[in-house]
Design goal:
CATH class: Alpha Beta
Structural class: alpha/beta
Strand content: 5-15%
Radius of gyration: 17 Å
Distance between the termini: 17 Å
Largest sheet: 8 strands, parallel, barrel
Number of strands: 8
Bound molecules: phosphoenolpyruvate
Low-confidence stretches: none
Mean pLDDT: 96
CATH architecture: Alpha-Beta Barrel
CATH topology: TIM Barrel
Shape: globular
CATH superfamily: Aldolase class I
Oligomer: single chain
């Protein structure tokens, strides 16, 4: 099953108008159509900069997306941004269930599933994040945690209300201990987790499990990207820190396209 790799940059709460412009200019200049025919690329800036991303990336083939989305369609949700608003801003993607949201905002599996459902309804592609903490890995609970997280996601995916083609549903395996720490899962560790996730999706009745792209995230850098992306079930990366440095992000995109 050939799955086109996706590299998505998660800018987190970083950037400003000037720095963004430099970064977006570099991406626009160096991510040509030939490269984009082999790897899909998206950037996910903070909400206030989505309009800037749209202005710089519109028509280039590089997509932009949000780092979260409200679980409800509209209404009394102060501080939230709805899926319909993301569509208005041309977003093709929304990250959901990032471990920073799960840890800092107490997001539950049920809320992650609700965000997926709303994205499906509005045709916003989802990048649904899962991953175990260091304590969970050391206690031998990695598969139990991933299984629980995937089951909640699969329940939202198998629901028939669906306006998303399979290629717009993406999972990102991000071991929490690897995010922003400089520690990366070895390619073999990533492959084992990705394989487990794909099989679990299938076991839960999601018929597109084989076509679903599963990204790896957690301290991906140009130096480790090639090894990770060579694994059969690693279909690209969700990139945090390195997505803020044009040369590093571009090198990671090229590694995914190779
Ligand atoms: C992330 O924020 O999703 C991430 C993977 O960050 P980093 O690449 O910095 O570890």
């Amino acid at each position: 099953m050939a799955r086109k790799p996706l590299v998505a940059g998660n800018w987190k709460m970083n950037g400003d108008i000037v720095a963004n412009e430099q970064l977006l200019t570099a991406l626009r200049a160096d991510l040509g159509r030939a490269l984009l025919s082999r790897v899909e690329v998206a950037v996910c800036p903070p909400y206030p900069y989505l309009g800037q991303a749209a202005a710089w990336l519109g028509g280039t083939g590089i997509a932009w997306g949000a780092q979260n989305v409200a679980a409800l369609p509209n209404g009394a949700c102060t501080g939230d941004v709805s899926a319909a608003m993301l569509v208005d801003l041309g977003c093709q993607w929304a990250i959901v269930g990032h471990s920073e949201r799960r840890q800092m905002a107490g997001e539950t599996d049920a809320q992650v599933a609700a965000r997926i459902s709303i994205c499906k309804l509005h045709g916003v592609g989802v990048i649904a994040c899962i991953g175990e903490t260091l304590d969970e890995r050391e206690a031998g609970r990695t598969e139990a945690v991933l299984g629980r997280q995937v089951d909640a996601i699969a329940a939202a995916l198998v629901d028939p209300v669906h306006r998303l083609p399979a290629q717009r549903v993406v999972l990102a395996y991000e071991p929490v201990w690897a995010i922003g720490t400089g520690r990366t899962a070895s390619p073999e560790m990533a492959q084992a987790a990705h394989r487990f996730v794909r099989e679990r999706l299938a076991r839960q009745g999601y018929r597109h499990a084989n076509a679903t792209r599963i990204l790896y995230g957690g301290s991906v850098k140009p130096a480790n990207a090639t090894g990770l992306f060579a694994m059969p079930d690693v279909d690209g990366g969700l990139i945090g820190g390195a997505s803020l440095v044009a040369d590093e992000f571009l090198a990671i995109c090229r590694a995914a396209a190779a």
